[in-house]
Amino acid sequence: MPVARLRSLLLALGAAVAFWLYAKLSLSYTVTLSVPVSAELAEQVALATPLPPKLQLYVHGSGWQLLGLLLWERPRQCVLPLQGVQPPALVRFSREQLLRLLQLPTTVAVFHMVPDTLSVRLESAVHRSVPVELRVRLRLPPGFVLSGPLAVEPQQVQLRGAAEAVAQLPQVATVDTQLEVRTARFQATIPLQLPHSLALSVSPAQVSLQGNVEQEAEAVIEDVPVALLRAPLHTPHQVLPPRVRLWVRGPLSRVQGLTPEAFHVTVHYEELLRDTLGQLLPQIRAPQGIAVFRVEPPTLLHIRNSP
After folding, report:
1. Which CATH number fits domain 3-123: 3.40.50.2300, 3.50.50.60, 2.40.160.40, 2.170.120.30?
2. CA angle centred on 64, ends 61 and 65, rounded to 5°
3. Which residues contact 305 (CB under 8 A, 6 or more apart)?
4. Phi-psi region of 289 (alpha: psi -120 to 50; beta: other; left: phi over 0)
């Protein structure tokens, strides 16, 4: 095909597309806009009830007008000016006031808005220090475990809000998070989350998490003594054997230093009095981070000696 003919075809196609686009943009359309809502408050003032997260706007106009709105004049946020209001107070925003705050161009029309009015109740702000609840799941490499407790910084955060709202939240939880651990020492920053039903803010808005992992090891701890708790000085009851063997699992550095004295194997005297079978399950308390996965013997014999 000659170059001149190809150029003519391309010009004709471009003109057709431009004419089609002009015709389409000259028609009327309706678009939906979601505009976040926030409030400017004085330092000593707090919202008593949460604001709706967004205003939903249904806007009507020609294609050209809506294109200009979406590209250059779209409202990014609806900020309620409440800096000069002293608590307690109830402030109402009408539909007309909200539209003025949005500063939409006059070439388009808002024929529906949800919500179309806002009522904002203000109270005096209070502050309260609350603990952080960690909601984190760790994925460790095979054969590795935590070598100690996780360190969270800070452990306490500051809540700010109306007194009634602050009293309803005894602690602040992190966002549910799953961490993939790939190094012996790891660190992560995890944001905090607040209930949407409460008008609260938290400072800081995130916490730092640190931890260490190391290779897992197993060991057998011999001759761990069995203690009879709350027994009278002279009792006819006896538990056999007096010592047990424990199979344990945990971080290598901690397993290597374990001794029988680190474990507490006990039987309560009240259990002896209730026993009718002559066999008892011992209670075992191990150091933090150490798991006992086997006991030998698994049950203890209960013998009542003749007076």
Report:
1. 2.170.120.30
2. 45
3. 236, 237, 238
4. left
Paired with 181 in beta bridges are: none
| CATH 2.170.120.30 is right for the domain spanning 216-304 | yes
In sequence order, the β-bridge partners of residue 203 are 158
Whether residue 27 contacts residue 60, with contact meaning beta carbons closer than 8 Å, is answered with no
Backbone phi, then psi, for 81, in 5-degree steps? -80, 100
Give the Cβ contact number of residue 205 at 10 Å.
12
- Asked if 284 contacts 292 with a C-beta cutoff of 8 angstroms, the reply is yes
> What residues does each domain of the chain span?
3-123, 126-213, 216-304
| Beta carbons of 110 and 104 less than 8 angstroms apart | yes
Mean pLDDT for all residues in the chain: 88
**Scanning the structure block, which residue is given the tokens 């603990």?**
131
* Dist CA 33 CA 175 (whole Å): 28
Q: What is the pLDDT of residues 265-300, one digit of tens each?
A: 999 888 877 877 888 889 999 998 899 999 999 998
CATH superfamily of the domain spanning 126-213: YbbR-like domain (2.170.120.40)
pTM for the model stands at 0.71
DSSP string of 24-66, one letter each residue: HHTSEEEEEEEEEEEEEE-TTEEESSPPPSEEEEEEEEEHHHH
